[in-house]
Automatic annotation (TrEMBL):
<keyword id="KW-0210">Decarboxylase</keyword>
<keyword id="KW-0457">Lysine biosynthesis</keyword>
<keyword id="KW-0456">Lyase</keyword>
<dbReference type="GO" id="GO:0008836">
    <property type="term" value="F:diaminopimelate decarboxylase activity"/>
</dbReference>
<dbReference type="Pfam" id="PF02784">
    <property type="entry name" value="Orn_Arg_deC_N"/>
</dbReference>
<feature type="binding site">
    <location>
        <position position="375"/>
    </location>
    <ligand>
        <name>pyridoxal 5'-phosphate</name>
    </ligand>
</feature>
<feature type="binding site">
    <location>
        <begin position="275"/>
        <end position="278"/>
    </location>
    <ligand>
        <name>pyridoxal 5'-phosphate</name>
    </ligand>
</feature>
<feature type="binding site">
    <location>
        <position position="314"/>
    </location>
    <ligand>
        <name>substrate</name>
    </ligand>
</feature>
<feature type="modified residue" description="N6-(pyridoxal phosphate)lysine">
    <location>
        <position position="60"/>
    </location>
</feature>
<dbReference type="InterPro" id="IPR022657">
    <property type="entry name" value="De-COase2_CS"/>
</dbReference>
<comment type="function">
    <text>Specifically catalyzes the decarboxylation of meso-diaminopimelate (meso-DAP) to L-lysine.</text>
</comment>
<feature type="domain" description="Orn/DAP/Arg decarboxylase 2 N-terminal">
    <location>
        <begin position="36"/>
        <end position="281"/>
    </location>
</feature>
<feature type="binding site">
    <location>
        <position position="375"/>
    </location>
    <ligand>
        <name>substrate</name>
    </ligand>
</feature>
<feature type="binding site">
    <location>
        <position position="239"/>
    </location>
    <ligand>
        <name>pyridoxal 5'-phosphate</name>
    </ligand>
</feature>
<dbReference type="InterPro" id="IPR022643">
    <property type="entry name" value="De-COase2_C"/>
</dbReference>
<dbReference type="InterPro" id="IPR009006">
    <property type="entry name" value="Ala_racemase/Decarboxylase_C"/>
</dbReference>
<dbReference type="InterPro" id="IPR022653">
    <property type="entry name" value="De-COase2_pyr-phos_BS"/>
</dbReference>
Length: 421
């Protein structure tokens, strides 16, 4: 459920009609619902109620400062994957003790940054990283809390570009090697082992791969404890999928996920961390765009929008589906037609949907891409010298532009011409 609904025939974000925002901000723009973001956080919080837990919002899904602050105010921690995200989380008011640091290529500079500013744990992904972190911590007279991210060799049954838990993926340490790696960690005075981490991929639509992975983590927890390690935290990663197509079967709910987590790892007495990104932000955001032209082609009609692949890359990058709906509600029973929905960028990859059935649309009409709040604005670029798409947050009848569209002057002046040219 989200808070983008038709009221009196007009699509609203909570209490605000979208045409009002379009008139103020121009199109295209992202619009997020604070109530939906809040609701999704609470779904996870309730799913793990009664179990010691921390929800570490994976801010790479949507790292707008206002969104991260909203999460922090609800009590969430965050999962960061770069020094930049770490600094942004701090700027959004997230205390260091609620930040976990993931990623296969943390640099020494990023480690230093996090150790200086305060960090809950590093999720270490390789032995060279472990040695480097030990050195950095020792050089600062610090001790770095760590988990080791294990790769359980489980098929997440998701798009190949966002599967991370198979042996062939670059992530984590093979689970079979984990005991040896933990034994090494225990000898490094700059590190303190606190737990185990696993994250097998994104947009999972079944609980089975999670359960397989978590069962392996439970087994490893027992083995590591028998080896003398103190395992007090399990970071179970993110990855729960969302319904991108309303017509498809819905993925499992956080409540079902939470019940599975308790069943599989609940008896270990560990604090549970989870890192949801997409499920928190995905259906809490839409991308609103305007029809520039309707072009009649050979046997097909093109709906040419003012949004493009640089604003929302998921269809071009992952062949992802986004429901597209008109902002003005079509009359009931109106006949739909097939459109290829495209943007103005100069490549054929700039296609959002082929043969999509939509009600009749005309120049100037507004449409909304649903489920665009995660991996939308964060992946946007200025390809074709198109300004970075602005972002708007709505809460009840409050509207705020939380990232302005840059002006062409700003964009041009970011480049410099060398004096010798
Ligand atoms: C991307 C990522 C997440 C979030 O995944 P979602 O599918 O958005 O929930 C969590 N943890 C790590 C380590 C990630 O890389």
């Amino acid at each position: 459920m989200d808070h983008f609904l038709y009221r009196d025939g007009v699509l609203h974000a909570e209490d605000v009609p979208l045409p009002e925002i379009a008139a103020r901000v121009g199109t295209p723009f992202y619009c997020y619902s604070a109530a939906t973001l809040t609701r999704h956080y609470h779904l996870f919080d309730e799913a793990l109620a009664g179990t010691d837990h921390l929800i570490c919002y994976a801010m790479k899904a949507n790292s707008n400062l206002a969104v991260v602050k909203l999460m922090g105010d609800l009590g969430a921690g965050v999962d960061v994957v770069s020094g930049g995200e770490y600094l942004k989380a701090r700027a959004a008011g997230i205390p260091g003790e609620r930040i976990v640091f993931s990623g296969v290529g943390k640099t020494r500079a990023e480690m230093r940054l996090a150790l200086e500013g305060g960090i809950r744990q590093f999720n270490v992904e390789s032995e060279p990283e472990m040695e480097a972190l030990n050195e950095v911590a020792l050089s600062m007279g610090a001790v770095a809390p760590i988990t080791v991210r294990v790769n359980p060799d489980v098929d997440a049954q998701t798009h190949e570009k966002i599967a991370t838990g198979k042996a062939e993926n670059k992530f984590g340490i093979p689970i079979a090697k984990a005991r040896a790696v933990y034994a090494r960690a225990a000898t490094l005075p700059g590190l303190k082992v606190v737990g185990i981490d696993v994250h097998i991929g994104s947009q999972l639509t079944s609980l089975e791969p999670f359960e397989l992975a978590y069962a392996k983590v439970a087994e490893l927890t027992r083995a590591l404890r028998a080896d003398g390690h103190s395992i007090t935290r399990l970071d179970l990663g993110g990855g729960l999928g969302i319904p991108y197509e309303r017509s498809n079967a819905a993925p499992p709910l956080p409540l079902e996920y939470g019940a599975m987590v308790r069943r599989v790892v609940g008896d270990l007495g560990c604090e549970i961390e989870i890192e949801p990104g997409r499920l928190i932000a995905g259906n809490a955001g839409i991308l609103v765009s305007q029809v520039i032209y309707v072009k009649e082609g050979e046997g097909r009609n093109f709906l040419i929008l003012d949004a493009a692949m640089n604003d929302l890359v998921r269809p071009a990058m992952y062949a992802a589906h986004h429901d597209i709906v008109p902002v003005i509600e079509p009359a009931p029973g109106v006949e739909q037609g097939a459109y290829d929905v495209v943007g103005p960028v100069c490549e054929s990859g700039d296609t959002f949907a082929k043969s999509r059935m939509l009600p009749p649309l005309a120049e100037g009409d507004l449409v909304a891409f649903r489920s665009a709040g995660a991996y939308g604005a964060v992946m946007a670029s200025e390809y074709n010298m198109r300004p970075l798409v602005p972002e708007v947050l709505v809460s009840g009848d409050h509207v705020a532009v939380i990232r302005e569209r840059p002006s062409f002057d700003e964009m041009i002046n970011r480049d410099t011409i060398p004096e010798w040219l």
